[in-house]
Amino acid sequence: MVTATAELADLQPKLEAKHKINKLRKLLDELSEDYERIYLDTPPALNFYAVSALIASDRVLIPFDCDSFSRQALYGLMREIEELKEDHNEDLQVEGIIVNQFQPRASLPQQMLDELIAEGLPVLPVYLGASVKMRESHQASLPLIHLDPRHKLTQQFVDLHHLLETNAHP
């Protein structure tokens, strides 16, 4: 017997969402006939949209800022991905962890990355640095490559793109 408690009320929207959670996957399955790759950018919160995207995806890229809060969030997300694999999408794989806001002169970020790599997590070898150029790009509503094609951060994104294309799965 499941009694009518506050926990049950909290469960209702989750159960209702399960019927809609696969809609994105069905849509992307149709689109995949016309496209080699489809990238979905989701908000950082693990909400309905992010979960729908994970269920619909073959692979996931995880951005990671080198700090303890991001590290805890990363571990939580990895657990959630394992649960989603069991319940909804057994083919989902973590393609890699994208290091973001990297500060090469600081020792803590490198130490943290070394630890993640030692744990066997798939940290990609291209690190995206911290730069005000990204904020300027957002402010101008202009892709970074158009705002400043020769900027160091732009080149890091180009390098990341080349890495992903080189490692792309058919």
TrEMBL record:
Source organism superkingdom: Bacteria
Q: Which residues form a coiled coil?
A: 14-41
Family annotation (Gene3D superfamilies)? P-loop containing nucleotide triphosphate hydrolases
> Is Coiled coil one of the keywords UniProt gives this record?
yes
One of this protein's Pfam families, by short name? AAA_31
What are the protein's UniProt keywords? Coiled coil
AAA domain span: 2-94
Q: Does the keyword Coiled coil apply?
A: yes
Stored PANTHER family: P-LOOP CONTAINING NUCLEOSIDE TRIPHOSPHATE HYDROLASE, PARA FAMILY PROTEIN CT_582
For this entry, the protein name equals: ParA protein
Q: Which organism is it from?
A: Pseudomonas savastanoi (Pseudomonas syringae pv. savastanoi)
